[in-house]
User: Fold this.
Amino acid sequence: MDFFLYFCRNVKNMAETNHLVIMAGGVGSRFWPVSTPKKPKQFIDILGTGSSLLQLTVKRFEKVCDIEHVWVVTSARYKELVREQLPLLPESNILLEPCMRNTAPCIAYAAWKIKKRDAAANIIVSPADHIVTDVEEFRRVMEEGLFFTAGEDRILTVGMRPSRPETGYGYIKVKENTGEGEIREVEGFKEKPDRQTAEEYLRAGGYLWNSGIFVWNVATIEKAFRKEQPEIACIFDELEKDFYTPGEQEAVNRRFPECKNISIDYAVMEHVRNIYVFPADFGWSDLGTWGSLHELSEKDTDRNAVVGEGVRLVECKDCVVRVSPDKPMVLQGLEGYIVAEHNGVFLICKAEEEQRIKEFSSRLQE
Amino acid sequence: MDFFLYFCRNVKNMAETNHLVIMAGGVGSRFWPVSTPKKPKQFIDILGTGSSLLQLTVKRFEKVCDIEHVWVVTSARYKELVREQLPLLPESNILLEPCMRNTAPCIAYAAWKIKKRDAAANIIVSPADHIVTDVEEFRRVMEEGLFFTAGEDRILTVGMRPSRPETGYGYIKVKENTGEGEIREVEGFKEKPDRQTAEEYLRAGGYLWNSGIFVWNVATIEKAFRKEQPEIACIFDELEKDFYTPGEQEAVNRRFPECKNISIDYAVMEHVRNIYVFPADFGWSDLGTWGSLHELSEKDTDRNAVVGEGVRLVECKDCVVRVSPDKPMVLQGLEGYIVAEHNGVFLICKAEEEQRIKEFSSRLQE
Assistant:
């Protein structure tokens, strides 16, 4: 491909057919009490930077995709939160799920809706609650990815080069010596491994963390749904006439619950053959746990990560503290604890017990 | 003494000449953040019973002394707190110190003021921030004590039978085979001992904790001040003409600061000879530390003492938790910690470090 063609396609990608679908329907129970069903973590300034994770996600893409082409799929109950946090987002770009049906129906809804307006759409699908520290590299990868799928029948995933035997992520096995440029074919997807398996992956090489970010053009994903999930495709075919009409929400509320509750991985990824991975490294975390927040945050010399202007630590080590700015607080003698507060609800627990946070939160209902 | 005389004196004590002086000027820095200079522990419902320590103190004496004869000596800044918490207390019974001068000037002020109205006054002096669990026995001891000092030139202290080698209290050495009834002469006062000395006291017997509660008639304490602290006596002699006049506060503000800064123990107790002790046991604590609160409080099977309706403990041991009722909170995996909150200010520290609480509180000013 000569430079002129590359240039034209690339400019076209950025200006007209690029779309971003942000999946923002999660309830984030592992970050309780900072994240609650009423206001889950994607809507929270969890890093203390002044922006919610959703706002950071949109900002990260602002040179890749115009705000008019950003679509946020979320639960009906979070509509006002999205409007508040993304005031420039057109209201009709907020897609409201009447109930949770995992990622496949969410992605299909967005794809069918975008398709009705822009049959040439080239789409990135991204979770709302991830963290990226090297935004410039991230943008480069996204632009290369869009270039790779524009007008081509290819599904692209983004795989992160692993830095540790993480058991909290799924893995993508790369097919070596395939693909073009930096991109490789996918040999297979692996579910979250146990510790030993994760260590083997790391030793063997060729395994990447599955970031949950996908790139494809709308025709490709439509075709994949028609082949692998015809019932879901059928529901959105029937809903299409209502899109962009005053009756859309009512129709979606009626039909969406009929969709199978299934992730995009099970529904599509594991069946299709034209699937690729972009091995990348842009300081990524799915920020799924307090531990990952601790890892990503700036730490003091005793490895404490603190968000909260009023917090003073005395003889504390390896703690992650995340409280409101107006909470004056002295913590002394804590090692390896999570101290979290949100809206006046407090959690203090050992960091090693964080997988039990859902249990802890349920104690307050007793 | 025959029964009729006993009866008459006792009835007289309860009805007419009994006075109670409550010393409520402390700043309670060891209970930070629950106790603050703005609202020290005597004004706080520290046990979560619905009454402040000051209110509990007044209530404890309600069958011993009429509210018209209760005198609260405190700092000028706490006047409104006292009025709020003791609405039945006559306003002129609140004596306001313009500055802190320890207990001797405080007691002299109250004595001279009471004397002007009631030369036969029989006075109990009590701190505002102590805890008594057996109020009936307490009342019996107070009534016996008042009976012992009414019209007699005797100074009575109240000594608590020690249950452990406490290093946080002063001790009173009893002169065996002296006194009358349950009351003994005092052989001497001992300052807060080190651990080894405290253990020796406990082993030897005849040593009691100094409760800081005193009983005397007003003539006795006046005479003691005139002999041992003539400068202080002189200041209040000169102030006496202003008592119960609109100019009282201004005059006190001018002269009170001239008083020596000295405790009643150093100023009077250690010099006088007519001094007695009532060995008693009514579940007493000066509630000077979080540790003593922990000891006094009801505890769960893991020895946690909790005040705070919203608190849930998971795998915690030997903790003392004292937070506002409206603070939902899950604590997991804490052993031997103090968790305290007041007005949104939090402290979490190891119980064994509680003597450093003043240091911790100063960290918030940094």
In short: The longest strand of chain A covers residues 207-217. DSSP finds twelve helices and 17 strands in chain A. Confidence is low (pLDDT under 50) at residues 1-13 of chain A.
